[in-house]
Amino acid sequence: MLRNRVFTAVVGGHFMVDVLNSVGAVLLAVLAGPLGLSNQQIGLALTVYTLLGALSQPLFGWIADRLPGRTLQLAALGVVWMALCYTGVALAPNWTVLLPCFLLAALGSGLFHPIGTASAAAAVPDKPASATAIFFFGGQAGLAVGPILAGIVLAAAGTPGIVPVALAAIVPAGVLLLAQQTARSRRTARAAAPAAPQVWTALAIAVLLAFVALVVVRSSIQAVYQSFLPKLFSDRGWEPTVYGALAGTFMATAAVGNVLNGWMADRFGMRAATVWPLILSVPAGLACFLATPLWAIFIACGLAGMLVGGQHSILVVHAQRILPVKQGLASGLILGFTFATGAIGTWLSGILADAVGLETVMIGVTLLGLPAAALALTLPGRARPAAAPAAAPTPAAAPAPAQGD
Fold first, then answer.
1. Residue 83's closest CA among 13, 139, 131?
2. Which residues, at least 6 apart from 98, have a Cβ–Cβ distance to it below 8 Å?
């Protein structure tokens, strides 16, 4: 899999895109003083950035489907676009210049993600779940490395230090352009099988609605964990370094869970790889909130991250299969929908937490793993091996022609 040039190119591109995505919040915090930015301005910029990146993905996926011979070139354009925009953010003399550069960078992320997701699965067609899982692992690694790298260069060189980090994105962009020729050669050599017409029976519509509900519930669970874990333990009097490490543990194990669940889906089917982790996530999450020893909380949080976050790549692959659109648009739709519904779930949970308490809301959200597991029963199980074709009769066994024929 890792010897596949197209696959490694999109994974490397995903890593760099999410490095830049995670640099933004750190960079804005550093620029707040020199530019006189308020918390409201920073919060508004980050919210609009996220929405632009999410809501633009279906459009860019649709465009990519209509340019099948140039998908990796478009992905490379997205990476370069982000590099140039973040260079502008780092060198911006005032808020008027900074804000457009920052928001426009989100469109590069929106362009790359649906193309990268579809290309990763298509590059390794015999193991699409594992390929998509590793693709998202590359992005999670970028999200983890970005803030650390930004902190180092900002401390050493100030905001201009972000410029070489941003321009380093040109390297994976170049790799994507080189991989385009490989993709074109494979496309020419491989004749595409005609797609079977989709028949939308009542059962098929019900299964699709169950899948949509599953995505809404699961993305909300993960988004609420990521957003409110630090606040929950901050309210308990923990130091920022400790609850920050706890949040980092959740994110890291979610990345590992994506890879493990992708392997499970290819081996045992999507249903088993989704139902059982969601069920087991409930006791793990409850232990994280209700345990008292520090070591037990960290272990439970790590297990919860692995079990809650591991289904993301599986659901993306399934959406690519069942949505009655091409791969690029399907990837854009499922990614944009996942991020948007997760944001809405976080917003509603915040409102409810102000009324009944954050711990109560976190426990309730954790228990949603059970209905999510029930919805996941509609996912396909393990694929049955195709029956061997019947052997053709040998000449000796063939019936003799009748006389007079």
1. 13
2. 31, 35, 88, 89, 92
- Contact between 32 and 95 under an 8 Å Cβ cutoff? The reply is no
Burial class (CB in 10 A: 0-12, 13-18, 19+), 147: middle
Length, in residues, of the chain? 405
237: left (phi over 0), alpha (psi -120 to 50) or beta: left
Whether residue 303 contacts residue 284, with contact meaning beta carbons closer than 8 Å, is answered with: yes
Euclidean distance between CA atoms 273 and 268, whole angstroms: 7
Q: Has this prediction a pTM greater than 0.85?
A: no
Residue 225's CB is within 10 A of a number of other CB atoms, namely 26
How far apart CA 195 and CA 193 sit, in angstroms, is 6
Yes or no: say if 346 and 223 are a contact pair by the CB < 8 Å rule: yes
DSSP state of 405: -
Sequence-separated (6 or more) residues with CB below 8 Å from residue 291: 297, 300
Q: What is the dihedral of CA 217, 221, 222, 224, to 10 degrees?
A: 130
Segment 73-93, tens digit of pLDDT: 999 999 999 999 999 988 888
Sequence-distant (6+) residues with CB within 8 A of 354 are: none
CA distances from 129 to 225, 237, 319, 325 (A): 24, 41, 12, 19
* Tens-digit pLDDT profile for residues 352-405: 988 898 899 999 999 999 999 999 999 988 766 545 444 445 444 444 444 444
CA of 394: how far to CAs of 216, 391, 398, 402, in Å?
57, 9, 6, 18
b/e per residue 246-283 (b: at least 16 CB within 10 A): bbbbbbbbbbbbbbbbbbbbbeebbbbbbbbbbbbbbe
- Cα end-to-end span (Å), the chain: 57
Could you tell me the domains of the chain? Answer: 5-187 (1.20.1250.20), 202-376 (1.20.1250.20)
Residue 365: in which H helix or E strand, if any? helix 358-367
